[in-house]
Every structure is written in structure tokens, then in C-alpha cells.
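SAMPLE LOG
Freezer: B-3
Tube label: C17
Construct: single chain, 169 aa
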Amino acid sequence: FFFKQKTAYEMQRGLVGSEMCIRDRVQGTLLEISKNNVQIKSLAAEYAKAALEKEEKKLNADMSEIISANDKARDVIQKGFEDMDEDIKRTTEDEPKEEKKEGDKDQVKEAKLDPPELRMKRQLKSSLIIKFQEILKQTNEAQAEYKKSEQNKIKRRLKMVKHNNTEQQ
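STRUCTURE (predicted):
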């Protein structure tokens, strides 16, 4: 009988599994929002070309569905960030406290640093938050583009009805 020693990765796989699950859920949801942003831009282009009120209503309904899906996706991401916070908190509580020796400056310096696992979790959350912010910015820009498309269409219609109308009218 041979005994195979487990590697550090195999021993910590359970810890890594939950982190990967949260990360994958958040990344998948971010991808979903990005795809929705592409759809919003496409709807804006279609809206500008729509000739019938029926088409416009359909596009507005589609837009509402996408916005609703993005709102749900934001909730999923928020829950993912909360789960990450809990995981970081558990890791912080589980870390053994190092004793500081007055004579050893290196050990005192080491005790002030976060353990690698904790740094990795915090960095992962930070990078996902940055990505989330970028995608939310893109979402806002896409929705603003759609709204501008609506406004331009209204302006064109007003000009056809009355040539003397101002923008406020």
C-alpha cells in the first residue's frame, strides 16, 4: 500500500471551491449585463428606424424587459459581493494571530501583513467591483443612447407637425 500525500491545493480545494463559485456567479452575471447592453444599443438603432407606433411599443416593451433583467442581475451581483464579504470575514476570523516579538523586526512586519489567502480574496472582490462599475457605466450610456433616440424621434415628429415649435414644446 502506498500513501499519496495531498498537495496544498488538494487540502484547500474546499475553500477555493466556494470562492470560485461566487466568482463564477458574479462574472456570469456581469457577462449577462454586458450582453443586455449590446441589445439595448441595438434597440436604440431599431427605434430610430421604426416607422409605426406598433413597432415602437414593441421596442419599448423589449427595453423594459432588458432593464428588468439588468435590475435582477444587479441584485445577484450584490448578493455575490455580500457572500464575498462573509467569506473574507470568516477567513479573517479563522486566521491564527501571530505573536509579536519585540526583538524581531521582520516578524513584527510579517504580522502586520494580511495572509496570502485573505489578500487574494480581497483582490478578487476589488477587481470584480471595478468590472461591475465599468459595466454599470456602459449600461447607463446604452440607456441614455436609447432615450436620446426616443427624444430625436419626437423632435422630428414635432417638426413635421409644426415648423415653429421650440424644443421645450
